[in-house]
Amino acid sequence: MKNKPLILIDGSSYLYRAFHAMPPLTNSHGESTGTVYGVINMLRKLITEYEPDQIAVIFDARGKTFRDDLYPEYKANRPSMPDELAEQIEPIHAIIRAMGLPILQVSGVEADDVIGTLARQASARGIDTLISTGDKDMAQLVDDHVHLINTMTNVTLDRAGVVEKFGVPPERIIELLGLMGDSSDNIPGVPKVGPKTAVKWLNQYGDADTLVAHADEIKGKVGESLRAHLDDLAMSRDLATIRCELDLELGVDDLAPAEADNESLKQLYARMEFSTWLREIVGSLSTQEPKEPLRYDVVDTEEQLKDWIERIKQAPYFALDTETTSLDYMQAEIVGVSLSVEPGEAAYIPLAHLYEGMPAQLDRDEVLQALKPILEDERYHKLGQHLKYDKNVLENHGITLRGIVFDTMLESYVADSAANRHNLDTLALKYLGHKMISYTDVAGKGAKQLNFAQVPIEQAAPYAAEDAEVALRLHQYLWPQIEQEPELKAIFSELELPLLSVLSRIERTGVLIDTQMLAAQSKEIATKLAKIEMEAYRLADGPFNLASPKQIQEILYQRQNLPVLAKTPKGAPSTAESVLQELALDYPLPKLILEYRALSKLKSTYIDKLPQQVDPRTGRVHTSYHQAVTATGRLSSSDPNLQNIPVRSEEGRRIRQAFIAAEGARIVAADYSQVELRIMAHLSADEGLLTAFAQGEDIHRATASEVFGCSVEAVTKEQRRAAKAINFGLIYGMSAFGLAKQLDIQRGQAQEYIDRYFQRYPGVKAYMERTREQAHADGYVSTVFGRRLYLPEINAKNGMRRQQAERAAINAPMQGTAADIIKRAMLQVDQWVSTQGNEVKLLMQVHDELVFEIAEPRLEEAVVAIRQAMESAAHLSVPLIVDIGVGKNWDEAH
Fold it and tell me: In terms of Cα–Cα distance, which of 119, 120, 158, 114 is closest to 139?
């Protein structure tokens, strides 16, 4: 096409194509967004490529069309629109309108007819038209001025393309469809006539009318079918014909796009949580609508520094941020410090930028010494984003940051833990509509990315000052909302915020690692892996890459013809772990592959990596704890991830053996016993559970006794195992199917166990039903201490996602309360540890366990103090019990 074409978009086709192509995305409020994203993404790509002067998006209108009158069974076999798709139409239309694109919906006809009418009007005037659709019916509209484009495949069809694809020219498409029918539209056509036969006849006879005139010449069953269904052929042609002479209110000249309504787009993208597009809009708004200029100072004189020190002293609180040489808090050194005391104003104090031609900077040591009294004084209140990192870095310079009163990352997390991300860029965009300067904007990307010390001060200053100033504004937005909810305020002020300093101390303490033991284990694992490889090669009749899903797929399913239990989204046989586990029950090779995967992962993730993570100055490994990641409030950790070291396998236990105590000390591991089951007893107030825990019974034996109707003494190992699976399974919402699979029993028998459990513990069933109802009504559930756990999909129209949210609703109060209890315990333990000098160290928090390093002479006293602190961290209807072990290493103490 020589000129810019008129673009006509088959919106109804877009809807279904996006719905089936996109994953089931949702925003944090549980609204489906996948189809919205897919449709708008296709539109944006098309507009970017063609920059049209005339465009329209055409959708089918609600209600019947004239084709339903012609043939009542027309489209009768189509299922009704899924609820999950229907709920996305309103936001799709709203975004399209905000983009400035005309939308057309005409009652009584289909989108195809509206498109056909506009295309023919344009052709008559010599205007080129591009129809964006995936509908084969539209091929009948193609002529010298009308082409089709499939945005999913980016294939364009002109006249020659139609002939190549369908075997007939555009003017014969109606007759082709009439002969072969269309199952998706329930157009009957002629039975026994498929595409090949229809194309052969049309090419032989020229058109359908000539074919009908010579129908007696067609031999065989297919000829009989043609002669018997000539009336159906005529009706099918009529149904397939796109009407191109509608009387439309809008013509081609009315299809110029309007200017985009960026304010509406901003609100819509924010609601849908399309952050990339939102950033684009926010960026364009900021250039279109200049606001009061921000005042970001570069502090490079003594007078400026004194002025800012006086300002932060006088302020009720000030925002603080550090720029550093590294993300590793143990290695990082300060490059500059940012301060802010009120919205719109901030300062950056460059201290250690290092590049050719850099301007003079204040001396880092002198500035930090000047700031130290303020930073270490509780009376001067500090706030910031993720201040645990800044606290750790300041410790590298001999400064202990005190007086932290607010942290915007934790404020966001307490307000809505289910939100995906709590980083400053995301929060600024989400809550303030502010697009932050990105690190790559000032430091570049990839291999050429600069260390921050190399970034020119004139570029570094706005980026760094913005971090402090935006954190201040974010706090002023978030805190009033938290203050309105006393329980959330308590979770923030009494739990999460004080825990920040405790975690900082744990991180900086680190844990000793026996690198020689790990080196020996690495060699042993390498030998094991080599043996597994050789055995796998033997079973597969040749070598292959055990880490390659593609090669495993070929060997298992093509060479060995193993049963295909599941497929990937693209239809290939799956090699996922769950599939291999099932195959491993009957076949040796999948079992070997699983063993190889597990050992390889342990070796690369822990055995070989831990020695590389030892800090050269401390000789210890220093993990990073994350407070704002899991929706339930549990802590997570990284570099290394302490939560995922397996405890059941021999290799996992040997890794734990490498976590050792210093000379003259021992490792002490204190672990809550069955804490989630105890929380279940407390929440459900079930008399049977309360009695069992109060009497100190083995809860799994007690449950087995109830479910299997025997005395506690008569419970077998197998019965106790089944009861344990029921106890923990129901907490996590396990179904009878899941329990049957775990215990290798029939589904009916598993359901019988569950029914008996609920008969014996009716309070548990009542709690589950009560919690489901509350979750549906409120959209969230709460822990014993008031932490809110939002469930975005609890009222989703998609049944599977709604049921998952219901299971989470039952489990979340238990997991969340367990998280709150271990955090409360850490605060209480830390108070005691802080009085013990260097003889007691809190090293790690892993799930429901605290791990210490304690000088041998203090062991007996420490065990008593730790138990007392942890068991009094919460007062439930049943006692909290802590199991404590002592050993030279973590495994021995566990």
Answer: 158
